Amino acid sequence: MFSSRLNWSLPRNRLSALLAEKRQAGARVLDLTESNPTRAGLEYPQAEILASLTDERALRYDPSPGGLRAAREAVAGYYRAEGLSIGPARVLLTASTSEAYAYLFKLLANPGDEILAPRPSYPLFEFLAGLESVRIRQYPLRYDGVWHVDFEALEQSITSRTRAIVAVNPNNPTGSFLKRAELERLEALAVRHNLAILSDEVFRDYALVEDAERVSTLAGQRQALTFSMSGLSKIAGMPQMKAGWMVASGPGSDEALEALELIADTYLSVSTPVQVALPRLLAISGGILEQIRQRTAANLVHLRQATRNSAATLLRVEGGWYAVLQIPRTRTEEEWTLKLLGECEVLVQPGFFYDFESEAFLVLSLLTGPATFAEGVARVLSVI
Q: Which of 281, 302, 327 is the last residue of a domain?
């Protein structure tokens, strides 16, 4: 009866089942996976946020497929504040980065075509692609003290059906940024094979180390057709506002934006109140962003100190909200996470949730409240 697009096998995993049991029993679980900033104990300027939603312009419906001019100008200003010459005409609003992916898959690929995505990375691409009847092929990131793209494997993954390469910058959960030399190779590869580059930059404002070779955004002058995606979810810590965007750059971007507006006109999904509020929300986002920066940086310092001389190795983190621990392979990742939750009431994510190629890795959220993070890390390390 239902479309094969929904032919997903999603049995409840043992970790989720155990977590439900713990919560049903009223256990105090130390959650080291928190990714929702609105539940992370941050201070939001409530009056200002609510006031931004009371503009009388929100009462009028004046549909604009690419987004209201003032909202797109605010996004362009976000980039110009960092010295990037991005005009509002290069910006197209979406309800989220996920919707941006959906639009881009529609734009670039026919059913059965392929998109290349990094591994490890956030486990969402297969679902988004499946809904568009597109296939994901993975290319590996390698770790040798720093994370880097395996370009030989990437090029070997390209087939006659490949249409685009996804770069998550910085990656989730590895926290690795593209470097300038990697970007040069990536663009050359895309040009050679006539591929678009889809750059997911939702965590770009959360760099945790200084690095002159880091590439913070692909928005701007590019050699290949490139789409840079972001939104309020991470920049302003407001996932509930449902406002994202993409910036189109490089050869063919004018034609791409025209086609994207046709796609967007079919849905008109970005609400008028949020578009009207967007300039003010971006203007007040700095305080929230800074709180998150301080939280993630402090938790990373604590984790680095706590894991020193322990059986766990903290992999290099350059940005984002997550940290990866490599732990002894005396148990499987599933066994480790079940033991930690079952015996210590600490919730962490196993590496296989993010398609790590080997074991054993644990993923921790640096967004977690400091007291919970410190206690949870202590319990994890005591067991490991």
A: 281
